[in-house]
Design goal:
It contains eight helices and eleven strands. It is α/β, with parallel strands linked by helices and 274 residues long. The protein has one domain: 3-Layer(aba) Sandwich (UDP-N-acetylmuramoyl-L-alanine:D-glutamate ligase). The strands form two sheets. The chain has a nine-stranded mixed β-sheet. Strand 2 and strand 3 form a beta hairpin. Helix 2 packs parallel to helix 3 and helix 7 runs antiparallel to helix 8. The longest helix has 17 residues. The radius of gyration is 18 Å and the shape is globular. The two termini are 32 Å apart.
Length: 274
């Protein structure tokens, strides 16, 4: 009699759908597959976009989102949850309520998505306070980029020293570990800062200039959630996620149509940090 293979850890992403498959739940699912975990989705919005341009956003109703989350928790042993684009105060409240009822059952990675890499807004202005009051205090790890951290703190972050201070302030304010992404700073290396109860640590890899970064934040937070789901410590999961993203950017795909070049990250299993 053949022995049944062990079932993989289950990870849920609650985020928007990107029809170009470079970001959102599609990027998350590709990352989960590369990490060998089983991915579930709860869709918050359908986004019509390609790298560099968002054309339309259509949110699902709060009732539909609540149904997606609750039915998945009834059926699957979810060990990690990653949130991305939550878009509105109403949807954010549904997510926070559903997750708060089940705290302690899973690792929670919150990527406070506010603006697309194209500059288009992905979070309504009245939802920022709800993020601060209802979502971030639930998280085990939050993964803001510099622009998102600046919104949360009300100040610009333009240096490595300011990054360290910002990560410490966010950790003190919300009690969650903070992975502050420094990709928007200039410099030879791309440096991310992790701040938690053990203090401040840096994770650095050479910067890849002139590359497509659409979906990079989604990919990093999804890889982090997958690493935690596989039993990795936070520091090991962060290092692995950063390596995975670095290789996805370095190996990006390119399609040429006349003068138009469309690029996408390549999520490959051999780029997974171990």
């Amino acid at each position: 009699m053949s022995r049944r293979a062990a079932s993989p850890p289950v990870v849920l992403t609650i985020a928007g759908s990107d029809n170009s498959c470079g970001a959102g739940i599609q990027a998350d699912l590709k990352t989960f597959g590369a990490y060998g975990v089983y991915g579930l989705t709860a869709v918050t919005c359908v986004v019509s976009e390609v790298p560099g341009r968002v054309e339309k956003v259509q949110a699902v109703t709060p009732e539909v989102l609540r149904s997606q989350i609750s039915i998945l928790f009834e059926a699957y042993p979810i060990v990690a949850v990653k949130t991305g684009m939550l878009y509105s105060r109403a949807l954010l409240r549904v997510v926070s309520e559903e997750l708060a009822d089940r705290l302690g059952m899973f690792h929670l990675v919150v990527d406070p998505v506010m603006v697309a890499s194209s500059g288009d807004p992905l979070l309504k202005k009245d939802a920022v306070r709800a993020y601060e009051e209802e979502m971030l205090p639930l998280a085990d790890v939050i993964t803001p980029n510099l622009d998102e951290a600046a919104v949360l703190l009300g100040c610009k972050i333009s240096s490595h020293r300011a990054m360290v201070r910002a990560s410490e302030e966010l950790y003190g304010r919300y009690g969650a570990a903070v992975l502050l992404k420094g990709g928007h700073l200039r410099g030879r290396d791309a440096v991310d800062i992790l701040c938690d109860r053990r203090g401040v640590r840096e994770f650095s890899l050479p910067r890849l200039n002139g590359c497509e970064t659409h979906g990079s934040g989604c990919t990093l937070s999804a890889a982090l959630a997958a690493g935690l789901a596989r039993g990795q410590s936070l520091a090991v999961a962060v290092a692995g996620a950063k390596k995975f993203l670095h290789q996805a950017i370095a190996r990006q795909l390119v399609w040429k149509r006349g003068r138009v070049h469309t690029r996408a990250l390549q999520h490959r299993a051999d780029g997974r940090g171990r």
